[in-house]
Amino acid sequence: MKEILSGNEAIARGAWEAGVLWASAYPGTPSTEILEAVGALYQDDIHAQWSPNEKTALEAAVGASLGGVRALACMKHVGVNVAADPLFTASYTGVNGGLVLVTADDPNLHSSQNEQDNRNYAKFAKVPMVEPADSQEAKDFLKAAFEISERFDTPVLLRSTTRISHSKSLVELGERQELPRPTELERDIAKNVMLPAYARPKHPKIEQRLADLKAYGKDCPLNRVEMGDRSIGIITSGIAYQYAKDALPGASFLKLGLVYPLPDDLVREFASQVDQVVVIEELDPFLEEQVRLLGIDVAHGKDWFPIIGELSPDLVAERLTGQAVERRPAADGLPIRPPVMCPGCSHRGVFTILRKLKVYVSGDIGCYTLGALPPFQAMHACLCMGGSITMAEGLSRAVADDSDRKNQVVAVIGDSTFFHSGVTGLMDLIWNQGSSVVMIQDNRITAMTGGQVTPGIGKNLMGQDAPVIDIETLVKALGVAEENVRVVNAYDLDQVETVLKEELAKPEPSVVLTKEPCVLQYRVKAPALTVDADACTACGVCLRTSCIALGMVGEGDDEHVEIDPNFCTGCTVCAQVCKFDAIRS
Amino acid sequence: MNRPENTQIVIAGIGGQGVLFTSRLLTEAARSRGLPVIGCETHGMSQRGGSVAAHLKFGAFWSPLVADGDADLLLGLDPVEANRALPCLRVTGGALCVVNASNQRPFPDPSVTHLLEKAGVGVATVDADTLAAGLDSPLLANLIVLGHACTRDAFPFGFGEIRDAAEAMSSPQHREANLAALEAGRTA
Fold this sequence. Notes:
The structure holds two protein chains of two kinds. Chain A is α/β, with parallel strands linked by helices. Chain A has four domains: 2-219, Thiamin diphosphate (ThDP)-binding fold, Pyr/PP domains (Rossmann fold); 224-321, Rossmann fold (3-Layer(aba) Sandwich); 346-522, Rossmann fold; 530-584, Alpha-Beta Plaits (2-Layer Sandwich). Chain A has 22 helices and 24 strands. A seven-stranded mixed sheet of chain A has the order 3-2-4-5-7-6-12. Chain B has one domain: Pyruvate-ferredoxin oxidoreductase, PFOR, domain III (Pyruvate-ferredoxin Oxidoreductase, domain 3, 3-Layer(aba) Sandwich), CATH 3.40.920.10. A six-stranded mixed sheet of chain B has the order 2-3-1-4-5-6, sandwiched between helices. Strand 8 of chain A pairs antiparallel with strand 2 of chain B.
């Protein structure tokens, strides 16, 4: 039977068919839908969980693997940075049940903070990597990855990209492979305890493993040679293969599925049969450098296909056919449409006040990062998940004399990001007696990735009731003084302002907590507000709350703000900033 | 007429307008014809009012993305987004664009009208926002555009096929409203 699946849904299906018993992840675009699908469709057979972060997700999966069952961990590219510590040493311990880590890369930064190419992790951690080119391969390669993992005693990386994860195509479905469960835990100290004495002898084994994998790659069914016109031989993988096939279907292809380690013999053999070798890959010259190291002359690689951004079918066709794509009718001067906070978003009022207070905002990763964009421009640094609190700690000790309090620092972090890695940051701040105010904006969900449950709301990925990790209790337990933990209503602008000012005046650290839920996920809606056109002076102050429900209409004396009732959730933030009382319930 | 083999489609709109649901209906219609389908959707920041596009290809293709100049059909759920997506359209052989637009929110942009004419692109507009408001379903402009597209010869499916797809893909509580929106688009 065939079904249309996205790459992510196909990976989930592949996990089920491969007999996987454990799947853990932290949400992150473009990887999120993998575990959502496992949790929704396969939870009878697979234990599926959101973990607080990628490191804990991978560690738990490593544990399941050592316990003897097949285990999957999924994350976006930057998530692997968080999980790199367990990854690099899991390369040394190896596995019992197969262990696959899915890394979903995001060329062109559709929804990411950087554009790293995670194929480099395969080389760095000395583990094999497979890379599918469509949904069918996403499923098949995941199953193959588990076999490679067990055969070669290694974690295996499966690399997807946005265009693989979020593209849909037909997939032939298979049955689940039922694997025996262990009856007891195997204890092998030398294999699994990486003290120097046990780790040292592992290193030569890993080098041997890479050599074995190189040899295996020659006949590995994941690598495919398609001989056609021998004047051009294209070495490629992933989505780039599809672009090249559309552009030059008759060319000769070496389509790599096992992209690390490179199957040297296969590459040499292919190169010897074609007049010129062209390497097509997104981002880094990962394949190209390895091909060149074999002494093979690469006619074109990164000189044709840029290191930066995504490849496109147009670009690949233009390079391969030598014909410039004709200029199409394009409209001039269209307004760009950047993402904005949703109408009614609980972050809007907070950023309105943070802008007003002119504090330095050390931000974090989530919907609230949009507070850095105009018209707020009320976030001044944002680095990585959980970094806001610790960066605030460093920032607030930098200015020599801040007696006039013009350089006060507020850290802003969401609930899911706080659980992810803000907790240790707060511990750092408390222990080292920093003085920052930490705003934890708990909207009861991981919002930016489309609404996944957090440790704070009493549910798990499989929809079961779960214990609540209560943020208020947690921050007090970490040592924030009782009187310095303040809960405010994010929609009450006066209260937010008053409390922030009070806490900023204190020398010791404070936590200001909001608890209003995400309007999008929890469908919060009160009756829409209306504008009294006569009272409205068209001053535009309300527009600076950046709500798409508000728009200026009319001209001259008739000019006034109008509220679109389809968008307005009645949150009243615009009404609170209006000096003329023109916006009413 | 109504020959979806080797059709490439781009659906352009804003987060929340139902670009992805529209894409799923067309996918279902193609599947009912037994056609191979590949396509690509935008996720991530798209829910926050940003530009969203879905690409769909029926027939023998490799890449899920529609290259600039290759689309046979552009469905524009928002006039600005439709203007932005125009370079996707084929400039020979009579491509079609069907766009939610009105006098207040016009399509096409004056800067491209003559180019579209020169390229032989068929343009159909429907004031789907007003019609949707009239149906008390402001979120169904997408299906009004789709229903309207069915009235054009260059559209790859018949109205019945799209209606069947909507029947199959709608949740029970939305089915009736969805079908009414398609019908409103067809008769507009």
